[in-house]
Amino acid sequence: MRNEEKDQRVRPGWPRLALGALSGALAGFAALSVAELVAAAVRPQSSPVIAVGGASIDATPAPVKDWAIRHFGTNDKLVLQLGILAVLAVLALVLGALAVRFRRVGAAGVLLFGVVGAAAAVARPDSTSLTDALPSVAGAVAGALLLYFLVGRLTAPRLVTEEAGAGQPASEGWDRRGFVLAAASAAAASAAAGAVGRSLNASQGKNAIASRDNVVLPTPGSPARPVPKRAGLRIDGISPFVTPNKDFYRVDTALVVPKVDATTWRLRIHGKGVPRPASYSYDDLLHRELIERDITLTCVSNEVGGPYAGNARWTGVRLADLLDECGVKPPSRGGRSDQLVSRSVDGMTIGSPVEDVMDGRDAMLALGMNGEPLPFEHGFPVRMVVPGLYGFVSACKWIQDIELTTFDSYDPYWVKRGWARRAPIKTESRIDTPKPFARPTAGTVMVAGVAWAQHRGIDKVEVRIDDGPWQEAHLAGEDTRDTWRQWSLPWRATKGGHTLTVRATDRTGTVQTDRRTRTIPDGAAGWHSVVVTVD
Questions:
Q1: pTM, rounded to two decimals
Q2: What is the enclosing helix (H) or strand (E) of 49?
Q3: Cα–Cα distance, 226 to 20 (Å, whole number)
Q4: 10 Å Cβ neighbour count for 325?
Q5: What gap in Å lies between CA 291 and CA 282, rounded to an integer?
Q6: What is the SS3 assignment for 472?
Q7: Using an 8 Å Cβ cutoff, are 502 and 526 in contact?
Q8: Which residues have C-beta within 8 Å of that of residue 246, sequence separation ≥ 6?
Q9: Which residue of 104, 362, 495, 525 is surrounded by the most CB atoms within 10 Å?
Q10: CA gap 311, 309 in Å, rounded
Q11: Torsions phi, psi of 105, nearest 5?
């Protein structure tokens, strides 16, 4: 019988599907690495993971965001980025396996993700050029070409001869050695590209770091008075009266902390009812009369008893003075605008009532925090601080623009997502010690914590043991009405399980409500309780 060879494709087996999935993973790795490298030439925020992550944050419903902050705290951004990478890894594996049979479809799938990343990058609020699409496009092209090439090493036709007896294995026919060499080379090149990209991206902040290092905060013309010795209680477990910068909470939407060069930074004040628009440099602000104030900030995402409150000594320029220079008047004096919209370098918009920032309170553009220039994480070079308002309606970090407008004509970022337009901080208190589910020993146990009602002040704190009567706690000395107050109560603890509850009364006579509400739309409310077991 004449030898005849038949060239026919056979359905790939599991080994080749697995290698196809590996090819997809390597293609995904290459795409992200090349994108990281190109982003270094554009700007770090144009990286596809950052761009898609930012778009995901913007599209996430407010209750989901609130859940993420509650469960992951300040690690919510890391969790989001890891989640994006995990999803991309799974999809890359699927596309790689699919490409073993449909080579062009797999490569096209990688290109599609590049389109998604590019669209997300150019749609970001801080995007100013179509070049933000380049990292995603370049990464997708590199990934698609690599996947097409690697899978090509796996999809050579299998040769089946008539001389091969029944049951004899036929040759697979694909280039094992070539595949291994290509895969290893791609992995090494991708790792190198990613490392160089990360290094270049990190170096882009050097000018900003140098500008911060060169800042010397002048002596404030209006310094804060010394913190009263009685303001800080020496009790284990209680929050310190002044929160160190490294421990101060951070809740924002920035996946990459902006590093702004103070030497090139500018602030513009303009808008409706601004007869004299103005622009200020960092040095302009630094050489004005500075004020220094102790102010407690609170995030609206803070649950009852939550950690997102902190007290610091802020140094800055009175915001009302700048607005006065620009001719701005509050509505009570005939002003045309009732909302001040502050814009960050990353596109965040925050709306504050003009009346509040010009009513005499110590609203400021802060340049310093606890005696040093603002940390980058907390808004260097300049941020807003307004006593008595939750951060989402006052505390714009990395600020670069102030526009005067009205609440009726513009909804800032959080209002568009279901949060309130106006949000004064509610009267709240928290038990810091003992911790929930603690097991103290019977005898005298110190119950202690903090209470706050910024711009009104705390007048009284009471503690209840189980269903017993309310007992007035000892209040530490007050610094100002814009800071929290520590409190304590010695409790003669008896063995067994107990529930400790706290409530505060502010200087207006308002008692902290027992009615529990969610953080959305204008801050959580209710009494904080902890359950302990006394041994």
A1: 0.85
A2: helix 48-59
A3: 67
A4: 12
A5: 16
A6: strand
A7: no
A8: none
A9: 362
A10: 7
A11: -65, -40
